User: Which sequence fits this backbone?
């Protein structure tokens, strides 16, 4: 069994290896390079999600993966709202037809149908925000902020929870998470927002950095808890093992799927 200390070292090492090329593509690479990363991450996360929620059927796993990538592409490339509505109608019709043609086991149909709708919204929607956010003014910097709000929160929650955590946050969802760790996570996200405001986002006022750190950091923690709920209900410890020390891809982006949407909406409407 890998100790917590060695697991942390493995996480730091893998992050040190992955981060430089990721940031290069984000800030210096071609647009298509970032879109490829978005698509690959969405595909891996979707694969892990459907392996958890419909483990017995390869057909439904592949269907869910395909629908997720289709919705992701529609959100990124649809030229108008009416086109997006048409795509949604096609996806909805396809789900209904396939569900009726392959109804067995009938007792599990509600789970399959629910996740065929929810999966594309959950993963496709979050990763589409990561693609769209990059196209806005200072988009790469805002995208980096959304990453920092998620991952600084995760780091703060880990260390504060490990040192001071006593009171369970939501034991029925995630027994290891504590109220103290959650507060530490908010502190980490505020720190991440302040680092951004003082370095690569000088146009972000410090008072807004505080608000973003608290609000979007809390939203990111909800994303973390949401994935924990899925894993808890399906009896899975990690969504996968694609990233050394980090578990699965979905484990790594569970908070980011929510912080990136919140950051995108902030930049689009309030900044």
Assistant:
């Amino acid at each position: 069994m890998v100790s917590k200390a060695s697991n942390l070292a493995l996480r730091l090492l893998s992050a040190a290896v992955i981060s430089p090329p990721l940031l290069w593509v984000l800030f210096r690479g071609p647009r298509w390079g970032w879109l490829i990363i978005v698509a690959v991450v969405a595909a891996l996360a979707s694969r892990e999600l459907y392996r958890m929620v419909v483990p017995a059927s390869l057909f439904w796993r592949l269907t869910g993966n395909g629908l997720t990538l289709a919705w992701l592409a529609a959100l990124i490339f649809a030229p108008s709202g009416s086109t997006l509505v048409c795509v949604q109608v096609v996806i909805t019709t396809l789900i209904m037809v396939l569900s009726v043609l392959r109804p067995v086991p009938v007792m599990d149909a509600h789970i399959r149908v629910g996740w065929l709708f929810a999966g594309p919204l959950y993963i496709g929607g979050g990763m589409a925000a990561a693609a769209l956010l990059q196209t806005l003014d200072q988009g790469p910097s805002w995208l980096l902020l959304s990453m920092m709000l998620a991952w600084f929160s995760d780091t703060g929650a880990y260390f504060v929870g490990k040192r001071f955590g006593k009171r369970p946050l939501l034991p029925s969802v995630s027994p290891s998470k504590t109220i103290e760790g959650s507060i530490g996570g908010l502190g980490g996200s505020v720190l991440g927002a302040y680092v951004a405001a003082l370095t690569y986002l000088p146009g972000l006022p410090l008072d807004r950095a505080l608000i973003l750190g608290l609000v979007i950091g809390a939203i990111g923690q909800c994303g973390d808890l949401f994935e924990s709920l899925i894993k808890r209900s399906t009896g899975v410890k990690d969504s996968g093992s694609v990233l050394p020390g980090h578990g699965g891809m979905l484990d790594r982006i569970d908070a980011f799927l929510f912080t990136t949407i919140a950051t995108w909406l902030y930049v689009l409407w309030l900044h």
About this structure: The chain is about 75% helix and 5% strand. The chain has one domain: 4-269.
